[in-house]
Write a structure and sequence with these properties.
By secondary structure, this protein is α+β, with helices and mostly antiparallel strands. It is built from five helices and eleven strands; from the N terminus they run H-E-E-H-E-E-H-E-E-H-E-E-E-E-H-E.
């Protein structure tokens, strides 16, 4: 078999397993996050991308133990990386508006997702977060990786009780 045929065969065999190559599955559990934007490439609910907890936790993520202004002592957060959630939805743009259940919203630059290991936390100390404990989702900056992020600029972007993300061009 020629090199070109082997390369084509390898591509065909690997493509179904490559991340975000196909349409985003529909959630089977309760929808906890809706991603919207004019350039969404992988919608699964009309023009939006909806995620349940299992879908989010299946994405590449990170666990970080850190102190925050909203918690007592060191706390361990885990969940998908924000850029992985955006990639799964096929979201492209320059600004991300993160909206909470109470309609509080923060605009953050796309670089906060692409250049930092920002977590869309689904768990705190190993437990899923209830609305009372700032869940179901909490945008956590990598305070454990870069102490320079521990300031009001990033605190104001650390939205909790997240329900939606809108990506704008």
């Amino acid at each position: 078999m020629s090199f070109l045929k082997r390369a084509l065969l390898a591509t065909l065999l690997v493509a179904p397993f490559s991340s975000h190559a196909f349409a985003l599955d529909k959630p089977t559990g309760e929808v906890i996050l809706t991603v919207t934007g004019p350039n969404l490439q992988h919608p699964n609910a009309g023009a939006a991308a909806e995620f349940d907890l299992a879908m989010l936790e299946a994405l590449k993520g990170r666990t970080g133990t850190m102190e925050t202004p909203w918690t007592e002592g060191k706390v361990t957060f885990s969940g998908p990386l924000l850029h992985e959630v955006l990639a799964a939805a096929g979201a492209q743009g320059t600004t991300i508006k993160v909206r909470a259940l109470n309609d509080y919203a923060a605009e953050i630059p796309m670089e906060d997702a692409t250049d930092l290991d920002t977590i869309l936390a689904t768990r705190m100390n190993g437990e899923t977060m209830s609305i009372r404990s700032k869940g179901p989702l909490f945008l956590i900056y990598p305070f454990d990786q870069d102490k320079n992020l521990y300031n009001e600029k990033y605190f104001s972007r650390s939205v909790w009780q997240i329900k939606a993300i809108e990506v704008t061009p």
